[in-house]
User: Which sequence fits this backbone?
């Protein structure tokens, strides 16, 4: 199967979506942030705050902003008027943060990259806001969980 971002001359190109039909499209991505015990304890003891402010609330805002700007970060992503972006952040274990980003749009192209970008930047924001407590924070398992709409659902 040929790569969609390579033209017949083997040069990189944006995918032409001009002949596609606009349909509802949704994608959900997840990232995991593993915190050292002292960082998790500090978040618990301080109602989710560090000296930089409310960690999860700030990460939600950053993730939504990033999803909306994905086309500025990833060269061949189409600019999209995202209609909905929800980020959920929770402690799934005492030292593990799960971040889920769900993005929806009615368009000719999917929003997988927007969901992945939102989940990634939210995780990076958690790292940034907690790094004064430790640099042993690990971001992992950034992945697409679900894709709906278009010619192939996952």
Assistant:
């Amino acid at each position: 199967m040929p790569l969609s971002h390579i033209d017949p001359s083997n040069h990189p190109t944006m995918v032409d979506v001009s002949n596609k039909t606009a349909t509802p499209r949704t994608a959900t991505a997840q990232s995991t942030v593993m915190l050292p015990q002292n960082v998790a304890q500090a978040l618990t003891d301080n109602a989710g705050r560090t000296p930089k402010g409310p960690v999860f609330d700030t990460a939600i805002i950053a993730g939504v902003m990033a999803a909306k700007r994905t086309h500025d970060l990833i060269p061949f992503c189409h600019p999209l008027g995202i209609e909905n972006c929800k980020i959920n952040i929770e402690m799934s274990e005492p030292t593990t943060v799960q971040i889920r980003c769900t993005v929806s749009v009615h368009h000719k192209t999917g929003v997988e990259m927007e969901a992945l970008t939102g989940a990634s930047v939210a995780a990076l924001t958690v790292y940034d806001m907690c790094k004064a407590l430790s640099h042993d924070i690990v971001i992992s398992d950034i992945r697409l969980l679900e894709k709906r709409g278009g010619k192939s659902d996952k």
Q: What stands out?
A: The radius of gyration is 17 Å. The longest strand covers residues 23-34.
